[in-house]
Oleandomycin transport system ATP-binding protein
Amino acid sequence: MLSIRTDVRGRDGPGAEMSMTTVGPLCHGVGVPPAIEAEGLVKRFGATTALAGASLSAAEGTVLGVLGPNGAGKTTATRVLATLLTPDEGRALVGGHDVLVEPHRVRSLIGLTGQYAGVDEALTGTENLVLIARLLGQRRGAARARAAELLEQFGLTDAGGRAARTYSGGMRRRLDLAASLVGRPRILFLDEPTTGLDPASRNELWGMVRTLTDDGVTVLLTTQYLEEADQLADDIVVIDRGAVVATGTPDDLKARAGAAVLQMRPTAPEQVPIVARVAGEVAGAAPTVEQGTVSVPAGDEALMPAVVRRLDDVGVRLAELTLRRATLDEVFLALTGHRAVTQDDAKEAV
């Protein structure tokens, strides 16, 4: 039996307008300075170029997702913006301050969480947060009050008196995120914050990030996980081999790989090559084949009936025919020539 399903809705519902994107800084309104802005960043380590003219921008109170595979330059970009590395070329403003000219002003505005929990595992949760608050100049009473506030916010009050080494991975990441918020930063850098987390802990962290932006915090989130970028980011910068290859909203980027994707599965598995050939010829684009299903970008709504007619002419019957939105995975493949990492990929690699 042939089943036909269509799903070409945008994030904002049916009929949402989709636009093409361009490589370069993002723009979020006239006269509103971005919370983060970088132009032409270059960083070299010997003969290796980690950043090759990267430019990006994040509006205040939004999440900017920096998406790319391992070694793409995401962490290097984060460290430059957080004043931990000096760029060889280019300019970056964070909170309106130049990272080279006023690094101390930048540091007073930001929080940073790396790929792995950076808390002291010998100290309790409370002691970790109080220590950071004291290092930031808070008086003892204020430091303890801030620690208690954050422990409650992140669901760690009952564990506050335990050593951090007794925490689960998800609890340590929550404590690490709480530690980055002790100084009430306006801008938060999260460098692959869900690395190594199970799905439940990952979803908890996602919820916390959304709460932060609701409070006006700007978040730059680096990730190699497509699901994470799609779930959290207002805008995405796709970076590969140190260069920005595309910018835009998740829906904008999906439009770059074709507003929709036509998927076909023939009744007879041996006819998959025929379906791939016909679909590619009609669409004028290279199809992909995965587990007996052929996918091809559908830039024109007339593609589906045209392909069906051609397949009927050559005697191919379809068990399934689906028109759906392009995924970020397909976008990444179209832009870089290789797939990014999914959460399932990460679990299989462990």
